[in-house]
């Protein structure tokens, strides 16, 4: 019997075969270029029909966030449309699952992918929407476009930007949901929001990392969410061009969309610890989270990151930089690679469709309190 064929030589792919011993396949995730980060994987398996194969990612314990593996379940698809969770084990630094193939091909990924080709299709659709204006703000180190959209005519300046960390693919699913909702004039509160606010969207801040199959960095191995204090053309042109446009428009509200490896819930991180912190400024952020949790069962406020102590905020991170620079109500949304445990889905876990619906809920909550922000 011939060995199954493992392939990751495609848009966003990442895996390396270590050894194939019968039905046991040892794999390694490849590090981001010029970086120690790795956790994202995406590959396909061919010529495995009818076989029960055991896949073992043997370097999982050395990944960027090994504490994220316990409780995690790999995503599997036979059509690249539906990505279901597969039973997954983690022990002794090895991530392992068994799959019985009932067809000629199967794909596995850390989360449902949102590839460069999918991004280009989203950009083409959005550019044709009534009221949406498109610009190319700049280019990445590999020469890829930093796509930007503007919609609305109000004085409040709302910025939505995603995928500084390219392996967090749920972020661009969220952006797809945001764009679709902003284009739906019948959606609750959207017409009123666009009358009061101008919404700026950057669906993918890191197109190079997306194409290369990186977890966290751009083509130079740079974590873009540590560049907002002093972006440069040599290291972080992606941040440089977006921040320049923010300086031109101003920022009243900012949502930086991310994914979290370990915490099985959706949550917001704020800007506690910035030098200009005031209780009134912080209260508006807290109130937004409270209202969002009341609006959807796919959000909660109990789990999240530890708050920074006064004066210790890292201004190289976008949420802190924008809150300090503009006085913005600035926030980082974190979505899970696992599931939103307060409202779980045993088949799909946290999923593309739920990411899109969360964007709807967040925009509706934003519309509800835009005057206060």
UniProtKB/TrEMBL annotation:
Pfam families: Pepdidase_M14_N (PF18027), Peptidase_M14 (PF00246)
GO MF, one example: zinc ion binding
GO-annotated biological processes: proteolysis
InterPro entries: Cytosolic_carboxypeptidase, Pepdidase_M14_N, Peptidase_M14
Active site feature: 334
Cofactor annotation: Zn(2+)
Coiled-coil region: none
Location of the Peptidase M14 domain: 110-373
Listed PROSITE patterns: PEPTIDASE_M14
Family: Belongs to the peptidase M14 family.
Protein name: Murein tripeptide amidase MpaA
């Amino acid at each position: 019997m011939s060995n199954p064929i493992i392939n990751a030589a495609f848009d966003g792919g990442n895996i390396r075969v270590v050894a194939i011993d019968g039905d046991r396949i040892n794999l390694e995730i490849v590090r981001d270029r010029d970086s120690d980060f790795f956790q994202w994987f995406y590959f396909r398996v061919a010529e495995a029909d009818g076989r029960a194969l055991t896949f073992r990612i043997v370097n999982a314990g050395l990944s960027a966030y090994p504490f994220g593996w316990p409780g995690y379940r790999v995503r599997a698809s036979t059509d690249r449309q539906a990505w279901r969770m597969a039973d997954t084990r983690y022990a002794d630094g090895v991530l392992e699952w068994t799959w019985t193939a009932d067809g000629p091909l199967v794909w596995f990924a850390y989360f449902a992918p949102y590839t460069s080709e999918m991004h280009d299709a989203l950009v083409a659709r959005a550019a044709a929407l009534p009221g949406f204006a498109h610009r190319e703000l700049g280019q990445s180190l590999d020469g890829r476009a930093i796509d930007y959209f503007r919609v609305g005519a109000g004085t409040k300046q709302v910025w939505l930007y995603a995928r500084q960390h390219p392996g967090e693919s749920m972020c661009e699913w969220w952006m797809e949901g945001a764009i679709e909702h902003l284009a739906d004039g019948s959606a609750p509160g959207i017409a009123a929001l666009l009358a009061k606010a101008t919404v700026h969207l950057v669906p993918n801040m890191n197109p190079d990392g997306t194409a290369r199959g990186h977890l966290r960095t751009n083509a130079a191995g740079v974590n873009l969410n540590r560049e907002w204090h002093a972006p440069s053309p040599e290291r972080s042109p992606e941040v440089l061009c977006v921040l320049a446009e923010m300086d031109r428009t101003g920022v009243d509200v900012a949502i930086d969309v991310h994914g979290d490896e370990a915490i099985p819930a959706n949550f917001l991180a704020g800007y506690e610890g910035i030098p200009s912190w005031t209780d009134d400024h912080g209260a508006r952020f807290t109130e937004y989270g409270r209202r969002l949790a009341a609006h959807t069962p796919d959000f909660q406020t109990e789990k999240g990151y530890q708050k920074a102590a006064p004066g210790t905020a890292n201004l190289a991170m976008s949420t802190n930089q924008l809150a300090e620079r503009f006085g913005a109500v600035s926030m980082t949304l974190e979505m899970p690679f696992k599931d939103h445990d307060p409202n779980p889905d045993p088949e799909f876990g946290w999923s593309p469709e739920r990411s899109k619906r969360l964007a709807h809920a967040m925009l509706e909550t934003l519309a509800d309190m835009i005057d206060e922000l």
